[in-house]
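Predict structure. Chain length: 490.
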Amino acid sequence: MQSVKRLPASAGRVRIGMVHLGLGAFHRAHQAVYLERYRQRTGDDAWGVSSANLRASVALVDALREAGHRYHVAEYADSEHVTVREIGVIEETLFTGKDENGRWGRDVETLLERMASPETRIVTLTVTEKGYFLSPASGELLVDDPLVAADIAHPEAPRTAPGLLVEALARRHAAGQAPFTVLSCDNMPDNGKRTRAAVMALAARRDAGLADWIADEVAFPCSMVDRIVPAMTEADFSRLAVLGIEDRNAVVGESFSQWVVEDDFPQGRPDWAADGVEMVADVAPFETMKLRMLNGSHSLLAYLGALGGIETVAEAVGREDLTSLLRRYMLDEAASTLAMPEGTDLDAYAEQLLARFANDSLHHRLQQIAMDGSQKLPQRWLSGAEIHLAVGRDVACTALGVAAWIRYTAGTDLAGTPHAVDDPLADRLAALHVRHGDDIAGLVSAFMAVEDVFPPALAAEPRFVAAVTAAYTDLTQQGLAGALDALGRA
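Prediction complete.
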């Protein structure tokens, strides 16, 4: 019999003190949950949230408005134990993207006014890696991207997250107001520093004085976020309906949740440490641990599993050969690159991750994890590979993952079944497959030459290129099981 715990939202409205860019499932199941718990514990009504969708459909924005901005989060410990929370801290939802008629920025002015208001003390972001418009390899602003170019030409009507931040900060600067703190909650190394880099590069093209003020006055703390939140499916809504939850805005996730934040908030912040937020001086070790061990493992499962016709994470880790691969990758190739605080047990963390991956109540689709691989590989795999290769160590698991990603971007699995490739470089990568056909060595070399993904020094490393080429050959000639067996014997 299923055990269900229900937690209603706090009553009444709260004042908006925080703006969030990226009204997606993760924000609603992570940051908003911490704020709801904080409000229920303290009664503090100063930290309501205005959340904006920058790209996705306007439908969620309007649906939340119609629901009074209340929705449910179902947290599954396993298929038999679930906690259902009602969330009430989001007070406003906005849409700044392109509507069905091709018009931009329905609510952009409302959002800018909200961000420019002295009441707004923190702006947070979950816009994914590509939403910062930074080259994954170099970290430089992609000034030739059409949306960035539009923000440079018309900064008063921004279309990107960095553009919104710059315009709102410019308004506060002009008004003589203190700036808000900018807190990235995306899975990127040094996410605060990368956010600062994007904002500074855009501001410098607009006004040197504004850029100097941002450099001197605006805080960009880093953070590490962790909670598995799959994309909702009709099966998930049906599961909730059985529990009496008829809510098209609901989100399903695992019960585990972690948020580690650098404590740098000049205009104040919620006192949320008692609600599970870890406030630290340096997030970097935790951030790198999660990116390389959790996210790196997820990416291995995503590309290898998808090539093998596997649909979910739980299904993938049900295979002994894939579980063995993950243990080897996490302990031999990921953990050994980390410099963690004393007392951190990385063996235990690896086993905890495997247990979380095996949670079959989540139905976490590998195709969701596989999105935007060109943006994710540098921080999840390639930076660690460079560390190993510099001292002559093996990177066989990473090489197999890279080979699987290359093969995945062809748009079919190993049996020839087509799948969508959702990636900013999808067309460019597909063209490489067409150009090189069955020439594996030529194909791998062509991918290595994509400097948006592969650092030149790594691409020029013969041992890495050879390992990826060999792994690609194993995958295409021996299949998934054969490639994993070959790795196990290596």
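Summary: The mean pLDDT is 95.
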